[in-house]
Amino acid sequence: MPPRNPSAIGLDFGTTNSALALARDGESTLATFARGDGSRSSTYRSVLFFETPDVGPPPPAIAGPKALERYFDTGGSGRLLQSLKSFLASPLFTSTVVFGRAFTLEDLVAIVLTRLRREVEEQHGELSNSIVMGRPVRFVGDDGDGEEALPLKRLRKAAATAGFDDVRFEFEPVAAAHSYERTLDHDELVLVGDFGGGTSDFCLVRLGPTRRRDASAREKAILGTEGVGLAGDAFDGEIVRHAVAPALGAGGTYRSFMEKKEIAIPPWIYERLRRWHHVSFLKSSDTMKFLNELRSLALDRAKIEALLHLVEYDLGPQLFTVVEGTKVSLSRELEHALRYIDPPLELDRTCTRAEFEQWIAGQLGAIEGCIDRLLASTNVSPRDVDRVFLTGGSALVPSVRAVFERRFGADKLRGGDELTSVATGLALVAEER
Ligand SMILES: Nc1ncnc2c1ncn2[C@@H]1O[C@H](COP(=O)(O)OP(=O)(O)OP(=O)(O)O)[C@@H](O)[C@H]1O
Ligand SMILES: [Mg+2]
């Protein structure tokens, strides 16, 4: 192994993608990770795959880019765990059993971080135990009562298991601001919006040479932060609700012999479908029994057959790959065919960008609410904002950008390094402190 690396470390454990950056002398460099095809990527998918064992105990979990590849290579034989960060604030999620072994949420996150660390160390030498780690302004599921002790405690524990026992947290949008600041040769008042998989986070901050030079300016640089626990995963959920669930019986009815009337198929089934990591929860014996009964009672049996097929074969990851692909295509194109054919499950529906924008109107409204609160609490008017820096994968959604164009004018918008600006900035923060 190469010698110990002296760099300051920034670690962004994202809902969808993680990244790690190393900073030295004001330069922040992203670590890269091997993909199955031999290429390298500066992002590391925050997923875990436990392959079904032939005999004996399960093989060790695979994390990162190779986990999804392996999942699809095996035809989906095993457990794929994703969006772990979205459970951190949930006291109800304590542990899950995978092939007979119980893992706490902290254990699962620790496996992702340990694997990630190992790959970085193979390239860059032994890392320090001291890091700055990103955190959203508001975690998914934190409804604003300030209940953030649990997710931070869990992140700290997982990081310690991965050998990072000295963790300081920084707000993810503040980290992204540091990444943007590298491009500045003058001072600016900047609104940063970071739209990820789980959360949308904001900060209003004075950036530039004065902040860098002057310790007292540094202390006062952040005027305010805001956040809401929804982003790309929630957009995917809206596509499922509007374009997928109706083909699986949502909104339909079944005949009740007991009450001799038609009854609506319970919507909670489809609520579960909207979060891809919740699809496997439908596979409980009670729900499967109910769905099997529904198959013979539903007025549109073919749709319930399709739903049963999805649940029985745990096709959540496959479904969401197609759904996410549709969303990403709609960032470039005006329409896209959402297609997944695995009889009796046959989804084939053209989705337009205009429809998608209507479907996510509620989420866009929540994002607008964050901007309003941030401007109000800091007593700043849109006119006073010099620049709007938008980052995170979901900042590529045109209607997300449009919210800021309307309020601040298109010429104030900047973007870039969508998947890595937080990690880059975290390492700079680590070096600055
Ligand atoms: N071109 C695109 N158009 C729309 N959405 C996209 C695009 N590219 C990526 N995304 C979405 O961006 C999200 C991932 O972004 P990112 O990696 O910034 O999130 P994260 O950092 O893992 O999450 P968080 O910050 O919430 O913890 C996913 O929901 C993904 O589907
Ligand atoms: Mg992020």
Structure description:
With 433 residues, this protein is an alpha+beta fold. It has a domain of 162 residues: 2-Layer Sandwich (Nucleotidyltransferase, domain 5), CATH 3.30.420. It has 15 helices and 22 strands. The strands form seven sheets. Strands 1, 2, 3, 6, 12 and 13 form a six-stranded mixed β-sheet that branches. Strands 16-15-14-21-22 form a five-stranded mixed β-sheet, sandwiched between helices. α2 packs across α3, α4 packs across α15 and α9 runs antiparallel to α10. Bound molecules: adenosine-5'-triphosphate (ATP) and magnesium ion.
What descriptive keywords fit this protein?
alpha+beta, 433 residues, globular, 6-stranded mixed beta sheet, 15 helices, binds magnesium ion, binds adenosine-5'-triphosphate, 22 strands, Nucleotidyltransferase, domain 5, 5-stranded mixed beta sheet
Mean pLDDT: 94
Residue share in β-strands: 15-25%
Quaternary state of the chains? single chain
Unreliable spans are none
The total count of strands amounts to 22
How does the helix and strand content classify structurally?
alpha+beta
The fold-level CATH name of the domain at 8-169 is Nucleotidyltransferase, domain 5
Name of the top-level CATH class of the domain at 8-169: Alpha Beta
User: What profile does the largest beta sheet have?
Assistant: 6 strands, mixed
Helicity level, as a percent range? 25-40%
Instruction: Provide the gyration radius in Å.
Output: 23 Å
**Euclidean distance between termini CA atoms:** 28 Å
Ligand identities? adenosine-5'-triphosphate, magnesium ion
| Overall outline | globular
How many helices? The count is: 15
CATH superfamily of the domain at 8-169: ATPase, nucleotide binding domain
Please give the CATH architecture of the domain at 8-169: 2-Layer Sandwich
